[in-house]
Design goal:
heterodimer; A: about 230 residues; mainly alpha; globular; B: about 240 residues; 2 domains; two-stranded antiparallel sheet; 2 strands; about 85% helix; about 5% strand
Chain lengths: ~230, ~240
Amino acid sequence: MTDQTLEGFYRTRFIPRAHRIGRLTLLVAMVFCLLPALYLSFVLGAFPGVGVILTGFLAIAAFVGIMWVVEPISYFPVLGVCGTYMSFLSGNIGNMRMPVVVSCQNAIEAEAGSRKAEVAAVIGIAVSVLVNLVFLIALVVIGKALIDILPAPVAQAVKDYTLPALYGAVLVMFMSGATRRDALTGILAGLVVFLSPVPEIFGAAGAGILAIAAVVLTNVGRFRPAGQRRVN
Amino acid sequence: MDQVLRIANSPVLWLLATLIVGVVVAQALLYLRMTLSFSDRFRILTGEERRIVFKTATINSIGPAIAVFFVAVSLVAMVGSPVTLMRVGVIGSAIFEFVAADQGARAAGAQLGTDSFTLQAFTAAVWVMTLGGMGWLLSTFFMTKTLDRAQEKLSVSNPALIRAMGTATPVAIFFILGANAAVDKQWLSDITVAMDDLAAVAVSALCMVALHFAGRGRPWLREWSVGLSLVAGLAAGYLVSQSLA
């Protein structure tokens, strides 16, 4: 019965299936990821020792450990369920998945938070995962040749300015779809973290979390009285 | 070093890398199929909109993919093609993989790209990249259901909240990413503004504003707007760096 409506189908069929696919593929990926390290260590006998691995691992964990937890939370409102599973398996979230999501939603004028926006996000991310892989495979097949055919100034500009230029354009795109109030909340959250002593590499995740917290706090104050009145 | 690179590019590692890439592709295709059939069943996207989304996603992936390519090229020279393909394909911020490989090699008393980079050091680098990237896979594996439930609860009691979160959060993230790209600072002292980076951020942002207004009556322009702004930003950054040099 509930399957017949869009929302019913979404909740009872689509989302449970999305979690099943996501968790299964992540599990398989985690096992497969370990294989090269295990092969080098125990088939070729080059195991460097637990101490060495731990030293290297802790050096990394010290600067990305927090991001393991914070990033999935701060990107979730845009990526959604399928988008989160896909993006964290394939990486390149800030520099590729997010720009693609907002461009796709914008191109078909889908309102943020609607099912239409979510469908556009899933299709967009899946396509961008495939496009990125095509480039990576080109990388291993033709190697540096692709870079060599670009004129030097172009190569230089792409290398140095892709990220700054992308951030500027994507910021405007997200702002154009936001209400004035939400855009302001976002800018303020970003500004607060920017002016704080939070190290640069935690900046994006930190600003995301702060924005979520700010939205929850300001909206709880705004909506709860109305809700209570309705109850009484 | 030569011997390490021979092993790093050996058929076994190619096979293992292909397995991982296979999972990534399979996952993307499964979600694509499921979502397209969901969309068709409830007529969420029209055929035309669907075509626009496919096209927009492709156009807007190309620029960033080329940029990833640049970092990946230097990684290939250090750890070989298969490991690069699988690491940058999975949880790849190419930069993170670089740092992880470097830390792993250092822990084994070696340096990337030199003769001290023995097979053991290579193995240590692969371990650190693997375990470091595993953190995101684990947290996504365990947290996504909880996040979904939390969001669902919120959306039942307060749908406006979800929309506000989905718009305020990325604004905050991209504001600080842009600010950090253009301004270097220690706390509030030692502030230096990189004029070329600032030009890239500002010009592409302005270009986006212009295209936003121009795109009102021209849907095709909206598909290209991020790509065009990106090109304008690249040109501005390059020109400013040349005029300062």
